[in-house]
Write a structure and sequence with these properties.
The chain is mainly β. The chain contains four helices and 33 strands. It has a domain of 89 residues: Sandwich (Immunoglobulin-like), CATH 2.60.40.1120. It is globular and about 75 Å long.
Length: 508
């Protein structure tokens, strides 16, 4: 009798079986365009947090909350939900399977956030809700969990993409010797090449595990991580284009074991050491996101991050020869302030003895009264508050056919509201500036968005629409919170260069 009653009691109190298809769709859309917005956080009053996928969707199924009003606080970098009379930014919706609901947000960023490019679950919620997605693998391409700092170059009819440290989903330690992938070169007139929904990376993978493999394995040097940066294409002695870059084998951010120039082996699809450089060499080497620029009848490879301030003739032989490098500076000597002309303006020049002048150096000169703020070349004024200077962090300078100017997109050292979380736009008539004023294009509240990169091969509408990405993470921000799936991954934005908000940064 007791066993029968106990069995009946267990049956009565057993949890109801979950309906595997009873997902409710909550979609966050841009109020102006109707497009889904990725990286929007929805949080219930009891602390349940959901983050929209690349299509702006959340697949919601909480057994105790279905079919009844639920309030979500809405947070998103550079986007805002409407506030009520108490100042709460959010929305009340009733989640029901088969009855999608929308929450509208207003974009405050000048740039529009498009999608997350790397990592797991790119379209996780859309897949759960049964929607078609624009990528062949919408869930876990390359089996990566997170990827740091992109480098990209067009080589032999393809775009080659490379990333730094790469997280894996099956163990806390991932790949620390560069990951890589290829894609077709986008056709700016083909809608199928529009990167707004993501980029279908064809990863170089380990055939045994399916996880992305090392692009610079260096098996004879097992100690340390390997980073490849400043990827570029130049002809070798036979006139054959070679893909190359700077490599650094190191213990961590602080200690370096080895550095030099690496060249890609197209047959083996790996980088190898072409030239080892002294550890003390800090500027006669590739850096940043290089560009080719013709000046004085010579094709130069320009380096620097974000602003080009080092150059070398654009051949592999010259890249391998530190004696061929030149730095752009206005310094009067080693450790000295700027050399000023009779009219009080800095005397800029290309030379081989002194290191290049950068944004941080100019900012210090301005602060110390050695350089007038209006004479700064790489430290532009904040267009919103011209008395403030923007100390630039890593980024890119690219030629833009629409603006007929060199456009800069870069991060900021010590920016607000987040250290390294801001992206700035400026332009100039020459790749070396001067960049007089900058407009904030995107912001990330208490999160980092570093190593900003504008991919010119993704430009559309004759260059009016440009795309940039960066590493989104809580690292260096002082914020312990990691955004699920998005943390330590690449996020893509697009920017309309005719946007009225950018007018103060225009050089014409």
């Amino acid at each position: 009798m007791y066993r029968v009653c106990l069995a009946a009691l267990l049956v009565c109190h057993a949890a109801p079986a979950a309906d595997p298809v009873a997902w409710a769709e909550v979609r966050v859309v841009d109020a102006a365009t109707g497009r889904g917005v990725p990286l929007v956080e929805l949080e219930t009053v009891n602390g349940l947090r959901f983050v929209t996928d690349n299509a702006g969707r959340v697949a919601f199924h909480e057994p105790g909350l279905m079919g009844r009003p639920v309030y979500f606080a809405v947070r998103s970098h550079g986007y805002e939900a409407a506030k009520d009379g108490f100042g709460f930014a959010g929305a009340k919706v009733t989640p029901r399977a088969g009855a999608p609901v929308e929450i509208k947000v207003t974009r405050r960023n000048v740039a529009e956030r498009l999608c997350r490019l790397t990592g797991e679950g790119l379209y996780r919620d859309s897949v759960l809700l049964g929607h078609k997605t624009p990528l062949p693998d919408p869930l876990n391409p390359g089996r990566v969990g997170g990827q740091d700092s992109v480098q990209a170059a067009v080589h032999r009819g393809k775009v080659y993409w490379f990333w730094g440290d790469t997280h894996r989903m099956d163990y806390p330690l991932g790949l620390f010797r560069m990951a890589g992938a290829t894609t077709p070169v986008p056709d700016p007139k083909d809608p199928k090449s529009d990167p707004a929904g993501g980029v279908a990376f064809d990863y170089f993978t380990d055939p045994k595990t399916g996880f992305t493999r090392a692009m610079m394995p260096l098996p004879e040097r097992p100690q340390g991580v390997v980073w490849v940066s400043a990827v570029f294409v130049v002809p070798d002695g036979k006139g054959v284009d070679r893909l190359a870059g700077h490599y650094s084998r190191r213990k961590g951010l602080a200690e370096e074991y080895e550095q030099g120039v690496a060249v890609f082996d197209d047959d083996k699809a790996v980088f190898g050491v072409a030239k080892q450089l002294p550890l003390a060499e800090t500027w006669r080497r590739p850096a940043g996101h290089p560009i080719v620029h013709e000046d004085g009848g010579t094709k130069w490879l320009l380096f620097g991050s974000p602003t080009p301030n080092v150059r070398v003739p654009a051949t592999l032989a010259d890249v391998l020869d530190p004696a061929k490098y030149e730095a752009f500076t206005c310094a009067d000597g080693p450790g000295a302030g700027p050399r000023l002309g009779a009219d009080g303006t800095p005397a800029w020049r290309w030379q081989k003895e002194l290191p290049p002048t950068d944004s941080k150096t100019e900012a210090a000169w301005v602060k110390d009264g050695k350089l007038k703020a209006e004479h700064a070349r790489f430290c532009p004024a904040d267009a919103a508050t011209p008395a403030d200077r923007v100390v630039l962090h890593s980024g890119t300078v690219r030629w833009n056919a629409h603006r007929k100017r060199w456009v800069l997109l870069a991060g900021q050292v010590g920016g607000k509201p987040s250290f390294l979380g801001e992206v700035w736009y400026a332009e100039a008539a020459a790749p070396t500036g001067p960049f007089r004023a900058a407009v904030k294009a995107a912001t990330h509240d208490r999160q980092t968005f570093y190593n900003v990169c504008h991919h010119a091969f993704l430009d559309r509408d004759g260059g009016r629409t440009v795309h940039f990405e960066g590493t989104y993470t809580n690292e260096f921000s002082g914020n312990p919170d990691k955004t699920p799936r998005y943390n330590y991954n690449q996020v893509l934005y697009r920017l309309d260069l005719d946007a009225p908000a950018l007018k103060p940064a225009r050089s014409d």
